[in-house]
What does this fold into?
Amino acid sequence: MPNESDSVQFGVALTVAWSDKARQLKGHLSEVNWYLYTGLLFLLTVLLTIVWAGLKLNVLLNDADALPIDAVAIKGERVYTSDAEIQAALQALMERSFFSADVGEVQQALEALPWVYHASVRREWPAKLKVTLQEQHAVAHWNGDDWLNINGEVFVAQPHESIERLPLLSGPEEMSSEVLTSYQQLSDLLSINGFKLASLSLSPRHAWHATLDNGILLELGREDKMSRIQRFINVYPEITRNQKPIATIDLRYDTGVAVGWDDTKTESRH
It folds into this structure.
């Protein structure tokens, strides 16, 4: 049976053990780099604050009610593109905030309008978009309903009275630029000699057909169209001596031409 002396010794031993542990803990705590941990805690706090602020800022910048687009300023000469068309094209995009509006999407929406060739868009603080438009410059009808611009590119748009008298060009879709270049070359040569070229077409077999504004059809064939036009210019005074209305002049011969008269529909060689 344990006696009082044993209890006292156990209590003393327990006190010594706790004292040793306290000294060890104190020693460990003294070895801790409190500056490092305090710095890390401060850095973590700063990072969390930045993330929170960033989320709040993102919500604000995307809030169309807080930062709406107040105005869109349109620059550039416009003949065929109306304010109503521009407003309709941008209606959905204008529901975004000033900062969340994608200027690339605004540009694409404007360039999708039929008569817009190019659009540039930039933001102007505090709540305005500045847009510069460049319209298509139509120089010819293409394959009936479409148009060619000054670069020989095909575009689709509604007709306008001011450009209904443009020349009529036609040909394979991928050769629009070549047809326009050929028209300009032939037209220049004809105009300095008193003729006006009204239309030019290139067949699927690459044969050229030109029509003058007086209705005469010139068959030019596949090759040497410039020299054949020059031959037409040279022989035309002789052909008109017959004083008959001319329907067609076939220039595909190596020498001479074949004339189709408008009254008899017969041909004579010159």
